[in-house]
From TrEMBL:
Keywords: ATP-binding, Nucleotide-binding, Transport. Residues 20-252 form the ABC transporter domain. GO terms for cellular component: membrane protein complex; plasma membrane. This is ABC transporter. InterPro entries: AAA+_ATPase, ABC_transporter-like_ATP-bd, ABC_transporter-like_CS, ABC_transpr_LolD-like, MacB-like_ATP-bd, P-loop_NTPase.
Amino acid sequence: MTTLTDHLSGPGNGQQGTAVSARGLQKNYGRGETTVAALRNVDIDFDAGRFTAIMGPSGSGKSTLMHCLAGLDTVDSGNIMLGGTDITKLNDSQLTALRRDRIGFIFQAFNLVPTLTAEQNITLPVALANGKVDPEWFGFVTSTLGLTDRLGHRPHQLSGGQQQRVAVARALLTRPEVIFADEPTGNLDSRVGAEVLGMLRRSSQEMGQSIIMVTHDPIAASYADRVVLLSDGQLAGELSNPTPQTVLAALAQLGA
């Protein structure tokens, strides 16, 4: 019988060490008296093969940090290493290739193409890269996520939970080094949200996938191995093996 372990191969799986690290990150918005410091000299490491949540009050810099780590936004100073690559030294075309080939994304709004089937949405990143889909891995990912009988459906024919599962499958298909998830359950009810979070945790624990998730939800954060706390653009602590209660208590101390 095929198991998850049988599929642990590729750059995103079975990793050891650090998936992403950042040193001295500074990011400002605006100029002069209107300048807002979104990140203030942030030093942080994210272990490979682990599920990490980033949390903090509104305006704490958590989304900015994730967007910079993922190469979606630039920093004013500091360095970000993805594996052995300093992404702060890459130009736009190099960043585009890095995001396409080495990073997976899961967004709150799913970001599915409405005219494409579920299968076409899942394989879209591979098609855009003129690559070839590994049929065994595709079948494994889609069956694990319960999508086998939905592959011919377009997004409007799928429930919210099914659409997000398609987005998760799309992110996993290329075996990326890191998956960045931005409020992945924000548009889902609690039952379906728990299902998606359970899949993310399983992909980390059993597939060795590195996941970095921004969330405001203590319950969502409790699915992670670690919670990183931000306040006013600075690191404000972290939690290991979080529970909803310990996350709520930590956020209360930050005034969230």
